[in-house]
Design brief:
The complex is a heterodimer of chains A (about 280) and B (about 325).
Chain A: H1 2-45, H2 48-52, H3 66-96, H4 102-116, H5 119-134, H6 139-163, H7 167-175, H8 180-208, H9 235-244, H10 248-281
Chain B: H1 8-15, H2 21-50, H3 53-59, E1 69-70, E2 75-76, H4 79-110, H5 113-128, H6 131-158, H7 173-197, H8 201-209, H9 214-225, H10 227-243, H11 246-251, H12 269-276, H13 283-321
Antiparallel strand pairs in B: 1-2
Helix pairs in contact in B: 3-13, 4-7, 4-10, 5-7, 7-10, 8-9, 10-13, 12-13
The chains are: A mainly alpha (about 280), B mainly alpha (about 325).
Chain lengths: ~280, ~325
């Protein structure tokens, strides 16, 4: 009787614990499948034209996505212009002045909630404040949408890395007679600099793959986009357009673009991990 | 995260009543910039309401339970999209929560450090893959797989249920739910894992010393202690699933109808905005889509606000006990 119970408990123990292992294997399996599948189809589709040519007119095969690559770079530059200063200074406030204050709590809470707002809603927002007044789609509108999306993560990661700087360092600097703003600008921020840059890099990697907020802000363009006021193509939107289109050659290029985008995003993630590990060791 | 203390500058300011003008300027600058985060939230809400006043005036609350979506006759009801969003997200959670919790338990309780760290990194990598790439894999791998294998299998085994009837299209609610599940699993895992690791060791040791097996320890001591945080991680995943756009748009079939069967195509709030925004011709049509965005905004804010409170709660509890 008690022996039977014991065996049953042992069996359920082994069973449930192995199930957690199975779950882990399943999730990792999905990851490796996606990476493998994209690489497999992407490598065979990738050629030099992809990086140097404009898209060919519908019906002709060949061509590339040079304009979309440049477009993505321009969009990211604009997004950083908005997201990095606001996110960085906001993070400085939260870590240096707002640790246990009501304002600090509210801003932190708002940043976390802002981070969870669907990207498509950010697209609508950028549409209403940039596209409607201007009257047409533009690179700027896309940059604004992505820039606002960058803010919450930039704020929170800057805050976390600044908090890792021990208070004893701040106190030592204050004791030497430095004023508050000099302590923050010339002691605290340089100490956490590498971490902050890593956080912003990850933030950029995240918005670089965003498609939904660009659909009706930066829109798309089959030619070069001159200046900042014309609609522009971007890699994620091109992947979407090409994947849902009925042409085989477009599907091939969608795989190539998918692989480039994936390399960009995963590369940033791996790089940041290496940088942080070295910082922890050093 | 836990070791936040009151900033030393508060003491510095306390001991030196006259803070220098440069310091005051610096403080004011970072404070103003930080407050802009709150401002942005407010402006988003304002702009969404302002730009959906036409449909709000015309349809009122009835918009939320109207079932007709006829852009030609300009009769708009949002219920099919609400239904599609809720069902696809529920389906995603039904799969992602047990699997995600399993992974979190494995990582926090079973795996040794050398295994747990890289695996955590890999699982979080899953969250870094752009949505449109999930969509790409969804269209070319998941859809044929579901059309040719999973749907025939399900209708043969469970075809007596209304959820698994009809022709296997491949695109539809089931596919969207599965793809969403893959996308939100990392959110369940990374938050739950941190929460489980924050459960004090004394909790585990107490139950183990009474003779519990390792699984019983997880079930009796760890999970109940972490309950509110795990709920938080589930709400966080829910908010992601509700607002997910590209991948869902690419596989759900985009048909604004309410069907009980999971094999049938559906439509979600995010997907209808993505598909029809640039095609919308009249002001009323565009503003109706903005209003759908407003509903999505309101729902995700509520879910996120709840999720964050639950998660903060766990960490402050731990902080106090330490």
């Amino acid at each position: 009787m008690t022996r039977g119970l014991l065996i049953r408990r042992r069996i359920s123990n082994v069973l449930m614990l192995s199930l957690t292992g199975v779950c882990t294997a399943l999730v990792l399996g999905v990851l490796f499948f996606i990476l493998g599948y994209i690489t497999y189809h992407g490598i065979s589709a990738l050629d030099w034209d992809f990086f140097t040519q404009l898209p060919k007119p519908v019906g002709e095969s060949g061509g590339g996505m040079a304009n979309a690559i440049v477009g993505t770079v321009k969009l990211l530059a604009l997004a950083s212009l908005i997201g990095v200063p606001i996110g960085f200074l906001g993070g400085v406030y939260l870590s240096e002045y707002g640790r246990k204050t009501t304002a600090g709590f509210l801003i932190r809470y708002a940043a976390d909630i802002l981070n969870g707002i669907p990207s498509i809603v950010m697209g609508i927002f950028a549409y209403t404040i940039v596209v409607l007044p201007m009257g047409h789609f533009s690179t700027v509108a896309g940059g604004v949408a992505l820039g606002i999306m960058m803010i919450p993560i930039a704020v929170r990661s800057t805050e976390e890395f600044l908090k890792l700087v021990p208070d004893s360092i701040r106190e030592a600097a204050l004791a030497l007679g430095l004023t508050e703003w000099k302590v923050v600008s010339f002691v605290v921020i340089p100490t956490a600099f590498r971490g902050i840059v890593t956080g912003i890099m990850l933030d950029l990697a995240r918005v670089s793959g965003e498609t939904a907020p660009l659909l009706f802000t930066a829109f798309s363009n089959r030619f070069w986009s001159r200046g900042w006021l014309e609609p522009t193509a971007s890699l994620p939107v091109m992947i979407y357009t090409y994947a849902v289109a009925p042409y085989d050659d477009w599907h091939r290029q969608a795989w190539a673009a998918g692989m480039v985008l994936l390399l960009l995003v995963l590369g940033a993630n791996l790089l940041s991990r290496l940088i942080l590990r070295r910082q922890l060791k050093g | 995260m836990v070791r936040s203390s009151i900033s030393p500058f508060r003491f510095a300011a306390f001991h030196r009543p006259g803070v220098s003008p440069a310091d005051r300027f610096f403080r004011a600058t970072v404070f103003t910039v930080a407050m802009s985060v709150l401002l942005i939230m407010g402006v988003i809400a304002f702009e969404l309401v302002r730009n959906s006043r036409l449909p709000i005036a015309k349809f009122g609350w009835g918009f939320l339970w109207g079932t007709t979506w006829d852009p030609v006759a300009e009769r708009f009801g949002a219920l099919p999209f609400l239904y599609g969003t809720l069902v696809s997200s529920a389906l995603a959670l039904l799969i992602a929560v047990p699997v995600g919790l399993g992974v979190a338990i494995f990582l926090s309780e079973l795996a040794p450090r050398w295994l747990s760290d890289p695996v955590t990194f890999l699982v979080e990598l899953l969250a870094a893959i752009p949505s449109v790439i999930y969509g790409l894999v969804g269209i070319f791998v998941l859809v044929p797989l579901i059309r040719n294998s999973l749907e025939p299998l399900l209708s043969a085994a469970l075809g007596f249920l209304p959820f698994f009837q009809g022709a296997p299209y491949g695109v539809g609610m089931l596919t969207a739910g599965l793809l969403l599940a893959m996308m939100v699993v990392p959110f369940v895992v990374s938050v739950s894992r941190e929460i489980l690791m924050a459960v004090p060791h004394s909790q585990r040791e107490a139950v183990l010393s009474l003779g519990a097996t390792q699984w019983e320890m997880v079930r009796i001591a760890v999970l109940p202690y972490a309950r509110s945080g795990i709920m938080g991680s589930i709400f966080l995943a829910l908010a992601r699933a509700l607002g997910e756009t590209m991948a869902v748009t690419m596989v759900i079939g985009n048909r604004p109808e309410i069907r009980l069967s999971l094999f049938e195509p559906g439509y979600t709030m995010a997907a209808v905005i993505a598909n029809e925004f640039t095609e919308a011709t009249s002001d009323l049509y565009v503003q109706t889509l903005v209003e759908i965005g407003l509903v999505l905004f309101a729902v995700t804010i509520l879910v996120n606000a709840l999720a964050r409170l639950l998660i903060y709660n766990v960490f402050t509890k731990v902080e106090v006990r330490e």
